[in-house]
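BUG: 3D viewer hangs when loading the predicted structure for this chain

Environment: internal workstation, default settings.
Expected: structure renders.
Actual: progress bar stalls at 90%.

Input used:
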Amino acid sequence: MKVRLMNSEGEQKRVEVGFSWTTFFFGFIPALVRGDLKWASVLFISAVIVGVFTLGFGAWLPGILFSFTYNKIYIKDLIDKGYKPANDADRDALERRGVFVKERDYVDQ
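Structure tokens produced before the viewer hung:
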């Protein structure tokens, strides 16, 4: 399920809620493409560290583990940067998935 987030300047981001299939298959690359350098580096460094200790066989493990939580982390970071749900349906979808959004904290259209 995708939701729209908007900031005060009207910039919109359409983000996926729930399991991150792109992180599952491509590891740190989706975070890098989104411009989320903090989490891209966390994923990359954790893959390198796990890969070193498992002779490369476990380098995929951090991507699989982060795929369960990355979209939620990304949405929370966007909300901290001033983005808000675009409407009631988006706010309700985020609340159902456990992303904290303040009551009536959305952008009217």
